[in-house]
Write a structure and sequence with these properties.
By secondary structure, the protein is mainly alpha-helical. The chain is built from nine helices and no strands.
Length: 202
C-alpha cells in the first residue's frame, strides 16, 4: 500500500512540475499567427491522471527503473500538452532532449529497435508536416511522435497515434464552431500517456 501512495505522490508531482516547466518555457514566447485557439491546461485533471497512472503501474508490478522512466515521460508529456495549450507550440526541450537521452541509452545498449521504432512512428508525421509546410501538422507534433516511438515502441505508439487522431477529429467537431487549426499535442500526449502501461511491457 505504501508503494502505491508513494507512486501517486511521485507521479502527481511529475505532472505538476511538467505544467510549471511549460509555463516557465512559454513565459516569454509569443503565439504564432496561425496558432490554434489558446487556453489553459487542466491542472487538476493532469495531476490526477498522472497520480492514477503511477498507482496503476505499481499495481501492475513495474520495476523502479521503469517507474522512474514512466514518471519522466509523464512530466514531458504534460509539459507538451501544457505548452501547446498555452502558446500553440511544443518546445524542443520537451521533445528533442528526452528523445536524445533515450537514443543515447539505446545506442549504448546496442538496442537498435528503439531507433527503428522512433523512425517508424515519426515518418507519417514528418511527411504530413513537410507536405503542408508545418500548417497541417506542426513539427512539434512530429518530434513528439518520435519520442513516443522511442519510449513505447512502434506498435504501441502507432496505436496511440491512431487513437489520438480519432479523438482530435471528434473533439474538434464537438467543441468548435468554425474551421481552423487545433492543438494536437494534448491529444497525442493523452494517448501516449494512456499507452505507457502497454509500452513498458515490451
Amino acid at each position: 500500500m505504501l508503494e502505491i501512495v508513494l507512486a501517486v505522490v511521485f507521479f502527481g508531482c511529475a505532472a505538476f512540475f511538467g505544467i510549471e516547466l511549460s509555463r516557465a518555457a512559454c513565459a516569454r514566447v509569443s503565439p504564432l499567427e496561425d496558432a490554434p485557439p489558446l487556453g489553459h491546461p487542466p491542472v487538476a485533471a493532469l495531476v490526477a491522471a498522472g497520480a492514477f497512472l503511477g498507482a496503476l503501474l505499481v499495481v501492475r508490478g513495474m520495476q523502479p527503473i521503469e517507474l522512474g522512466t514512466s514518471a519522466f515521460l509523464v512530466l514531458v508529456l504534460v509539459a507538451c500538452w501544457s505548452s501547446d495549450s498555452l502558446r500553440g507550440i511544443v518546445p524542443d526541450v520537451f521533445t528533442l532532449l528526452p528523445l536524445g537521452i533515450l537514443l543515447a541509452v539505446a545506442g549504448a545498449r546496442r538496442d537498435w529497435l528503439v531507433f527503428a521504432s522512433a523512425l517508424i512512428a515519426v515518418t507519417p508525421f514528418a511527411v504530413a508536416a513537410w507536405t503542408t509546410h508545418g500548417r497541417g501538422m506542426g513539427w512539434g507534433d512530429v518530434k513528439l511522435a518520435a519520442l513516443a516511438g522511442a519510449a513505447l515502441g512502434a506498435p504501441v505508439a502507432i496505436l496511440a497515434i491512431l487513437v489520438a487522431c480519432i479523438a482530435a477529429v471528434v473533439g474538434s467537431r464537438l467543441g468548435r464552431t468554425k474551421a481552423g487549426p487545433i492543438a494536437f499535442a494534448p491529444y497525442l500526449a493523452a494517448a501516449f500517456g494512456a499507452a505507457i502501461p502497454l509500452g513498458m511491457l515490451r
